[in-house]
What we know:
Layout: E1 8-12, H1 17-27, E2 31-36, H2 56-61, E3 65-70, H3 75-85, E4 90-93, H4 99-102, H5 107-113, E5 118-123, H6 138-144, E6 152-153, E7 156-157, H7 164-187, E8 196-201, H8 202-209, H9 211-220, E9 237-241, E10 247-251, H10 255-265, H11 269-273, H12 280-285, H13 287-298, H14 303-313, E11 316-319, H15 323-326, H16 330-333, E12 338-341, E13 348-351, H17 374-380, H18 385-393, E14 397-398
Parallel strand pairs: 1-2, 1-4, 2-3, 4-5, 5-8
Antiparallel strand pairs: 3-14, 6-7, 9-10, 10-11, 12-13
Helix pairs in contact: 1-7, 7-8, 10-14
Amino acid sequence: MGPLAGVTVVALEQAVSAPMCTRTLADFGARVIKVENPAGGDFARHYDDVVLGQAAHFVWVNRGKESVALDLKSEAGVAVLHRLLAEADVLVSNLAPGAVGRLGLSAAELAEKYPELISVEIDGFGAGGPLSHKRAYDLLVQAESGVCAVTGTADAPAKPGPPMADVTTGLYAALSILAALYERDRARGGTASGGASIAVSLFDTMAEMMGYHLTYARHSGIDQLPLGMSSPAVAPYGAYPTRDGRTVVLGTTNDREWQRLATAVIDRPDLAADDRFRTNPGRTRHRAELDEAIAAWCARHDLADIQRIADAAGIGNSQYNRPSEVLNHPQLVERDRWREIDTPAGPIPSLLPPAILSGFDPPMNPVPGLGEHTDTVLAEFGYDAGEIATLRSTAVIGGESRAEAIP
């Protein structure tokens, strides 16, 4: 059943941030009803067609949901939505700026009509600022919040590969929903309504992720330069080519580890005794000398030997992998982290959610076709066959069977 069994979530969502939020809730057993535009649905469905004709982003963040195709530009469609909200626990949205207000779903309106409902709006920049009206995509927010300036290298700033703004904002939203559900359960039986209004913005989330860099800049007056696969905070800490053409990543986070790296790994007791490298601030100032010494040693050894020696010395290490090399990574395979889930085009592998709860197996339910559950959901929420037929004949609702989901 899962810890969130019995919780119903209605999602007006697209792209990644809100879908990641609701998929997280579905992974814990919540029922997620994904409301989509009948004309194409969530636009992330069409980013590419590499997954049996489906988009990789979409199948990643939309398993375990029910899709209802509903035209919210029609009065009848909005009326259907309100029928769903009357019995829902949570509403999650990440529509364009101002869209939920135009639908009559502002926080104030929802609180008045559904005092038990937890409403969550994910937006780009938060309300009340000079950028609040702007559309915000992952790259745009990462650039605006400074993330790109601390990623890559000084002459080639970069966006982190994963959509970090979208994903972390979705997870913050899910965490906030869990807190609100807990508070609502405590409030029931008392004078409080139990509902809540939650707003989470991509910009605020990424500003939080930038906490170290912002704190450093405020108190030092220095914008730290990005160091590729290294860190401005500690040294030595980076990636080094090996004799057999691989790349090893070695890291130290304190003075004791540095001493062990210098003496027990690269056999340089002279560096361990050098006052310039005795503390981390000194090592970061002389990073280039340390990297040169470590790189020279790694270039004389194969990856497996380096990792064996580093493990024996208690030094953190890993190997640099490409995505294709992670698919069958032994740490995933031997721990049975892959499952097969259904999609409209057939089964695909999908990773289990990261959190492992004792006594609970995540449901790992199918990825929905556009509008696949429209009829069954509406029937469950009180619409008879004639009413459903009328809504379909007037294009208020859409839907397709699983066999029709992929052209």
